[in-house]
Structure formats: structure tokens, C-alpha cells
Amino acid sequence: MRSWPLLAAFVAAAVVLAFGAAVSQEGAPVKIVPRLTGNAQPMALDRIPPLGRPVVDDVKRMRNYPEQPPVIPHSIDGYQLTVNTNRCMDCHKREFTEGSGAPMISVTHFQDRDGQVLADVTPRRYFCTACHVQQSDVQPLVPNQFRDAATIGRKP
After folding, report:
1. Contacts from 75-81 at CB under 8 Å and sequence distance 24+?
2. Residue 58 · residue 71 · CB < 8 Å
3. How far apart are CA 84 and CA 77, in angstroms?
4. Which residue would you say has higher pLDDT here, 51 or 85?
5. For the whole model, what pTM was predicted?
6. DSSP structural state of residue 12
7. Cβ atoms of 75 and 56 closer than 8 Å
8. What kind and span of H or E run contains 11?
9. What is the DSSP string of 80-103?
10. Where are the beta strands (DSSP E) in the chain?
11. Is pLDDT of 31 > 60?
12. How many Å from the N-terminal Cα to the C-terminal Cα in the chain?
């Protein structure tokens, strides 16, 4: 029972240290996180630069690393992707690939998180653009120094 006052004092000291560090000597809160680039006013509207032209050659691209999701080699402007509608499935679902000529979505998209195979696309893989991106004809914003793994290391 004698340890309760000691424990209460310890908790009070921890609270003072935790919250006291965020207040300056004048009593004004200290800015803990610096402002990131962008608008000074968080709710201000800024002009968004136009997107580049989508690459629409329908050429299947080589992947840069294992397990990279394939890129989308066609325009997806106007595609509806909601909880009730997924236009990607109009061509890429198994039963439509013969008529559309599109590649079928991966079998991994039919497995739930426990590895059970489902009859339809699992909800966690339903929103395609969470992983797959449309290619655009634009200059990179940041210089890219990516080197393929095959070009690094000793040659046989």
C-alpha cells in the first residue's frame, strides 16, 4: 500500500514532462512539427498542374522488381471505381478476357487474407488503382537513379 503514493508521484511527473515540453515559457504552445511544403493555409485551394497524356499503346511493360503490380497500359479516364462498380472487371475478370483480349487478373486477387480461394475478387483487391497505376507521358519530377538488379553485382 505504501507504493501507491510513489506510483502517483511518478505518473504526475511523467504527465508534467510529457505535456510541459509542448508549452513555451510564455505559455504559448511550441510548434512541434515544422510546416511542410505547400499552401500556408491548410484549406486554401491551389492550382493542380494538368496530368500528362496517358500512354495508350497497350504494350505490356517489363516489371522493375519482383512482385511489382503491372502498370495499366491504357487510359482509365472516366473509369468508375466504386464499392458497387468496377469498370476494370468488364475486361479483366476471368469470364470476359476471351472477348476483350485483356489479361486475366491474378489468381492472388481471389484469395482472402487467410489464403482461402473465393469465387469472385476478394474485397481487399477490388480497388485496382490502389496498386496499379496508369502510365503517363511526362518527365519525372525527381531524377531517377534506379538500376535493375541484373546490372548490379558480379557477372557470371
Report:
1. 75/134, 76/129, 76/134, 81/127, 81/128, 81/129
2. no
3. 18
4. 85
5. 0.60
6. H
7. yes
8. helix 3-20
9. -BSSS-BTTHHHHSGGGHHHH-PP
10. 53-54, 136-137
11. no
12. 72
